[in-house]
Amino acid sequence: MSTVPGFAVQIIGERINPGFKSVKAFFDNEDLPAIQALALRQAQAGAAYQNVNIGARALTDPEFMARVIRAIQEVVSTPLSFDFPSKAVQEICLSSYSLERAGGMLPIVNSITEHRWDLMELYGRFRFKVIVMASERMEDGVARGNKSAEQIYSTAKRAALRLQKDYGMPLDDIFIDMSISAIVADTEGLNRSTLQAIQSIGADPELRGVHMMGGLSNIGQQLPSKAADGSDLKAGLENAFLTLAVPLGFDTVLGTPWRGYAPLPEEHHVLKTYRLFLEQSGSNALRAVRKFYKA
User: Fold this and answer.
1) Which has the closest alpha carbon to 36: 81, 60, 69, 72?
2) Domains identified in the chain and CATH numbers
3) What pLDDT does 294 receive?
């Protein structure tokens, strides 16, 4: 397993995604060599997996989806993660995936929730790992968002044990997406709840072996690029979160392999301010956010 120096985490490479303008152009132009070069760069930078998302075109042009998967596997042996909520698309992805080219490593289905469980109907016909969203639960037949640490933890545990007991899936094949929120709008303590839930999951002996993951890019959305100390604020926030979360059991990042994730020293301005932010709620949380870029 490839890990990040300084952190005991693995990276699921996020770049094969039309959310990046340059990559959207690759898909629009059907530039498979450019997609292959990007996959190769992520592999060389240490990605343990590579997430594949071609956007809505996966529903209208399944053959192109299959071509993209085959092209990627021609140049890298990194196992792939298929990022689509559609069972039909996931079936195409899994059918196109070569276990042999991935060295026997299983792909990842990204992702299921308690109200979107139909993807598990593919398990048995195919073997795969799975990402479970802990941000939503089913309550009285209705999907509801999780806000408290207990809700996040309970949803994660319920889903993981269901996968283990009903499908025989090893806990090591289960990734819990902890859904890291943007701090600029976090007046309800969602970051605090996420970290508390990570602590609860990491301390639960019944969940030993399960992976905890998340995409970090949301955390610094709509904030200035520089912190008060002149450092890269968004990178600092991502590393501040990891500095607190990794010791609790968070072990997988959906991110850019060459991002430069590293633990922050205790005296680092962004880490100290993030700790202060985590203690606040409501308007006090917004005031704490301003301290990131005001000396």
Assistant:
1) 72
2) 10-290 (3.20.20.20)
3) 87
